[in-house]
Amino acid sequence: MTQSDRLHTKGPLSLGFIGGGLSSTIGQAHFAASRLDGRWQLSAGFFSRQREMNCKTAETWHIPQDRLYETWQSFVASEKDKLDAVVVLTPTPEHLEIVCALINEGIPIICEKPLGSSIEETDLINQTYQESRNFLSVTYNYSGYPMVRELRERIRNGELGRLQQIHFEMPQEVFLRSSDTAGKTASPQSWRLKDGAIPTICLDLGVHLHHLAYFIIGKEPERVIAECSNFSTHPGLVDNVMMWLEYEDEMKGSFWMSKTALGNRNGLRLRLYGEDGSAEWVQMHPEELRISYKDGTLITVDRAAKTLISGEARYNRYRAGHPSGFIEAFANLYYDIADALIEYRNDGEHNNPYVFGIDHSIRGLELFAATRESDNDRCWKELKK
């Protein structure tokens, strides 16, 4: 049976994981999100180089022993004709080799952000991709929140008038919070404590801010100036970045990301200001979109209000008043990826506005490479148009 045949059969699409075992940061979120709406079924995987963790993950997720593998290479060789898509959940520095191998085998790819660690890596992936152009999506999960999608629709409908400024921030505290704090997180993985040409914090947090800004306003910045700082006990590591951005039509913006902002578990906050109004969304209150208008009116939009997008049945697995959170937002993206993959197999391309791939990933890394250069040179940097 071909991949195209499988996509036309009834039942969930068949999924495989490379990485993402129980000890990983993000694997369980992908597992839960992919299953929530019945669009996907995890069928096989190589979850961890640690044999015990690999086996424990397979047992927990009910993966048959004959579809559990000891290397990603053996996984690809055995499963390439059995799966509808493979999710790449390894540390970012390992993406290049794995993603290129999957492209060469013609296997549809769902890759945890970022696609690569550097411009050079994404260029190599792009060279391989251009030869076959099989399905490749990158998971920027925060745009799966219904109220973020609602905000996007209202901005694009001109509800706030011409945008004048945006301020997006993602402060966290993980590099300063005491290790004996209740609910502590595990020590950062070793690769997260090394910076390359692009600071790792930009690969981890910054790509989300870039994605959300483009997702909502549909524009890329033209210039950036930035300052990178170190406030933690990890010497030489960039753990705080402040960026100032200029867009077309004289619109201004700022991004702030931090791993040393005590009191912020994950303080994702989006603020947009236009000629006729402003809007604010905060991830800690994901069901509420606050909008202020020029006449002084202040409203809070939730899924029970008169909405443009977020009132759709797919976003209301249970009625308003019962908060929908991070996993549900991630599940919305997996739902869209399933739709996009089926459309791609039928038509050779997809037009899903919620699913992003290689070009968007490259633009994000170009922005953060310029961010590092700006910090080094202490000046504005022009971005490619």
CATH superfamily assignment of the largest domain?
Dihydrodipicolinate Reductase, domain 2
Number of helices: 10
Beta content: 15-25%
Helix content: 25-40%
CATH classification class of the largest domain: Alpha Beta
CATH architecture of the largest domain, by name, is 2-Layer Sandwich
| Parts with pLDDT < 50 across at least 5 consecutive residues | none
User: What's the overall average pLDDT, rounded?
Assistant: 94
Structure summary:
This protein is 33% helix and 21% strand.
Outline the structure in words:
With 385 residues, the chain is an alpha/beta fold. It has 2 domains: 3-142 and 334-356, Rossmann fold (3-Layer(aba) Sandwich), CATH 3.40.50.720; 143-319 and 364-377, Dihydrodipicolinate Reductase, domain 2, CATH 3.30.360. It is 33% helix and 21% strand. The strands form 2 sheets. A 9-stranded mixed beta sheet has the order 13-12-11-10-6-9-8-7-14. A 5-stranded parallel beta sheet has the order 2-1-3-4-5, sandwiched between helices. Strand 3, helix 5 and strand 4 form a beta-alpha-beta unit.
Q: Which characteristics define this entry?
A:
alpha/beta; 2 domains; nine-stranded mixed beta sheet; Rossmann fold; 385 residues; Dihydrodipicolinate Reductase, domain 2; five-stranded parallel beta sheet
